[in-house]
Design brief:
It is a single chain. The chain is of the alpha+beta class and about 120 residues long. The protein has one domain: Ribosomal protein S6/Translation elongation factor EF1B (Alpha-Beta Plaits, 2-Layer Sandwich). Helix content is about 35%, strand content about 25%. Strands 1, 2, 3, 4 and 5 form a 5-stranded antiparallel β-sheet that branches. It is elongated, with a radius of gyration of 16 Å.
């Protein structure tokens, strides 16, 4: 899909093109997440698996990862097929991250356009 500039996104278009380009009322949102975890508590692969399991249970997808030699995971979360994430989805992720004992700190970025960041 072509990346649209801000002025191109605001250009008047018919409903069919707005839907195809995912602009206007068809805009889809997701959010970025950065996690620092305790390597003494959990292995890198187990941390990523746990995150992905939670994301997939909520019908979302995680694009990202990290380095097995570090204790950081970062990526972007959006709906699995089509659709948009809401503030409720963001809050659900925040609550889940807060109760994970293996996470030292995390940053959950605001909802943003998943297609035209």
């Amino acid at each position: 899909m072509k990346l649209l500039s801000p002025s191109e996104r605001l250009k008047p278009r018919c409903r069919r093109l707005r839907k195809k380009l995912r602009v206007g009322e068809f805009k889809e949102y997701g959010f970025s997440v950065d996690i620092t975890f305790n390597k003494n508590t959990v292995r890198f692969n187990d941390a990523v698996d746990s995150l992905i399991e939670f994301v997939e249970i909520n019908h979302c997808i995680f694009g990202g990862g990290g380095d097995q030699n570090s204790n950081n995971i970062s990526g972007f979360i959006c709906k699995f097929n089509t659709g948009t994430l809401t503030q409720d989805d963001w809050l659900k992720m925040k609550c889940w991250l807060e109760v994970q004992s293996w996470i030292i700190e995390f940053t959950l970025h605001d909802l943003q356009d998943a297609w035209h960041c």
